[in-house]
Amino acid sequence: MQKGIRHGDLLTPFLFVLVVEGLTSLVKEASNSYLFRGIKVGLKGELVNILQYVDDTIFVGEASVENVRTLKIILQGFELASGLKVNFYKSCLGAIGVGRETLISFAEILHCKLSNILLVYLGIPIGANPRRSKTW
């Protein structure tokens, strides 16, 4: 127990998933308390506020200062609780339909870079028009 887990240990991915599940719970709790507002998608209006795949996390929400500040607090609390470090300088912020000045102010709050929203994530173009053949 004193030596910890080494890089490449078979337990590492499982433990990471357990710890990151705590982050999902924090975001859902903030959403249930109306501190973080996600977006509703689909015909049934399903609420989406966090997407995770392997070691990538995408937070989805309304473009507001309150949401950005809440997200910063959630991530700082996650760091304290888990002992994992969120590298804000490697993190990116992007939005659709939000002015550049607003995005810059949000990025300054989070201390992160701006992302070109027309990006490819897991081979899928995000932010591009799916009806255009050049997208695919």
Automatic annotation (TrEMBL):
Keywords: Signal. Residues 1-126 form the Reverse transcriptase domain. The keyword Signal applies. It comes from Cajanus cajan. This is Reverse transcriptase domain-containing protein. InterPro entries: RT_dom. Residues 1-22 form the signal peptide. Transmembrane segments: none annotated. The lineage of its organism: Eukaryota, Viridiplantae, Streptophyta, Embryophyta, Tracheophyta. It comes from the Eukaryota.
